[in-house]
UniProtKB/TrEMBL annotation:
Keywords: Oxidoreductase. One of its GO terms (molecular function) is oxidoreductase activity. Residues 1-21 are annotated as: Disordered. InterPro entries: NAD(P)-bd_dom_sf (IPR036291), SDR_DHRS6-like (IPR051122), SDR_fam (IPR002347). This is SDR family oxidoreductase. Belongs to the short-chain dehydrogenases/reductases (SDR) family. It comes from Corallococcus terminator. The lineage of its organism: Bacteria, Pseudomonadati, Myxococcota, Myxococcia, Myxococcales.
Amino acid sequence: MQVPRHPEEPPPNGTLPRGAPDPRWALILGVSSGTGAAIAEAVARKPGLDIFGVHRGRYPEAALQMEARVRATGRDLLLRQADASTPESAEAGADELLARAGPRSVKLFVHAIAGAALGHFLSDGPDRLHPRRVQRTFDCMAHSFVYWTQALVKRDLLAPDARLLGLQNPLDETQLGNTGLISAAKAALEMYIRYLAVELGPKGHRVNLLKFGTVMTPALHHVYSPEALALLEQRHAAMNPAGRMCTVEEVARFVCVLTGDEAGWFNGATIDFTGGMTLRLLDLVLNP
């Protein structure tokens, strides 16, 4: 005798009949490497989401490794190579996702794309933050969250009780040299999160911002020399109460928690996952 299946449980082969909504997809921007890749692998395992990922193709080897690990979980995976920061890209990506997954299919949306310009606002040198750099940084790190949310809502792609998540860093608590434009863009993202939480809350969806400290990613290895990376780890070991840096895997596991029913009351929140990273800054300056 066949045992009846719970109505919310997916069939054994992980698919639903053609045309039926399957609220088991994660949309991840910046999926090829670093935090985005770690989140894709984690949520594919638990709670068991299929992955629609967008990336620019800058780290092809890392993308292949991520793809293999996701497929090893038995989940479906669709990758789109594109610049996710524009409204046109959001519309085209949402159309592709709708064709593949159907309406009300996106349980989790994670905005993990970067693309920030470093520099100074009043510099006369090559690090001057001219208008094109300002626009590009805000599109990548703030505006694109709105573009994709609008595209998802327009196509009725958000599953019941969908979770939308932006990523933040501790630069809202302190100032770091040439990162003023990043801080400004992340401040805009935080405001977008709050207002979207109010607009989407009555529909049952939750919109939050996850703040965590520096993690080792291919982007860091691309920017810094091995000596600089070693110094970076040393400084973080002194700064963090845990005596080490956070890892992308730790961030990814917490995203799995935020996807679960237990985190359903978080909304419009900036969730501190920094591990107390900034608690000792003054002490380190005054008592080096």
